[in-house]
Write a structure and sequence with these properties.
With 180 residues, this protein is mainly α. The protein has 8 helices and 2 strands.
């Protein structure tokens, strides 16, 4: 490996007390995002804008600023994820991580976030990610072909979206019946 690539690979293979450094970085990022969303005004504003932009705007929340901050943070986290991916594998290509955004959305939906926005917890996203990773690992260990793995992931995504839609419909009908 070239010197730069070996440096990234070294970072990706380094451990502290037997725990990979990349895992520690991931835990720190998750904790930071969880704190920011649950314990700050900014986090409350993010949830408000995600639930209903017009209601948030009417409440005096600077919707454009909140959206910009979320997009900037998302870009920074994508950069961090790309850097961690590079460190883990010691190499990168232009197609590395292709379609991983679909897996990320599926993991978050499995973790309980709503596709319509305004609801979701960091812990739920972590649990959904772990569930998705365990299933993917299990399929690989069972020597399931990659085409069937993709089909299974797609089916899992459809099930998660269907369950989320059914849950949302139940909550909406319960809210309507309690309002009467």
């Amino acid at each position: 490996l070239p010197k730069v690539a070996s440096t990234y690979a070294t970072i990706g293979q380094t451990t502290v007390l037997g725990i990979p450094v990349l895992a520690l970085i991931w835990v720190a990022a998750v904790a930071g995002i969880g704190f920011a969303l649950n314990r700050t005004v900014w986090g409350r504003r993010v949830y408000a804008v995600g639930s209903n932009k017009e209601a948030a705007r009417a409440s005096g929340i600077p919707v454009k600023s909140v959206l910009w901050s979320v997009y900037i943070l998302a870009g920074l986290l994508v950069g961090l994820g790309g850097w961690m991916f590079l460190c883990r594998f010691g190499a990168g290509t232009s197609t590395a991580g292709n379609l991983m955004e679909l897996e990320a959305i599926a993991a978050v939906v499995i973790g309980g976030a709503r596709l319509t926005g305004g609801y979701g917890k960091v812990f739920g996203a972590v649990v959904g990610t772990i569930i998705f990773a365990v299933i993917a690992n299990l399929l690989s260990l069972l020597n399931v072909s990659t085409f069937l793995q993709d089909a299974f992931r797609g089916a899992l995504i459809l099930v998660a979206v269907t369950l989320a839609t059914v849950q949302f419909a139940r909550l909406r009908s319960a809210a309507k019946s309690s309002a009467k």
